Description:
The chain is an alpha+beta fold. The protein is 58% helix and 9% strand. It has 3 domains: 9-108, Orthogonal Bundle (Arc Repressor Mutant, subunit A); 114-154; 159-211, Arc Repressor Mutant, subunit A (Orthogonal Bundle), CATH 1.10.10.
Amino acid sequence: MDEPPSPGLKVIEVVPGKRRMRLVRLSDGREFVFSEEACARHAIEPGTVVTAATLAELEDDERRVQAHEAALRMLSHRSRAESEMRTRLRMRGIEPEIVEEEIQRLRAAGLIDDDRFAESWVADRQRMSPRGRRMLRYELLGRGISPEAVDRATASIDDLEVALEAARNRARKSADPDYESFATRVGGYLQRRGFSYDVVMEAIRTAWRELGRASPDGAFAEPAQ
């Protein structure tokens, strides 16, 4: 920043710019660019008297405005966990104290909520790509969600119920001629999604029985015990 103006300098002109920015011209010939929000907060308009303290406050406010706009842009694409938002704002070079102020602002406005994020994450996963409770916990903890919030979001998950539904969906598309082929294909699918061995085997056996598949001699093909 240039040397601060002496007390009593006036704002000569405020010129609207792109993206709600304002070009502020002072009586000593210098120009500054601030957001519309920062200018409104300090009543910056032609005739306003500015001091070094005023400009310092404007610059502080501007950094807060930029942090908020960056956060809103990120949220416009998808919801974010608090930890992710904090990390991404810091990666933009925003001072830690301003980042924390922005996190509190977003939290107070209900724009970030780790409980809601975790619940949405679980619901989306179970709808699009079902997986076991253990894997869901791993994913959420990796995104910085607290263990308590993770527990709340995953408490109602019944691994066997989820695995069985996934196995049924795979079975409906199956052309496997025998239980062994079916178990290998569907079992691998379920294990990659974090279901335990016992859950996988129970889901496979149940789905296979429901298929009513016959063995080559026409008898019902019960899986080996």
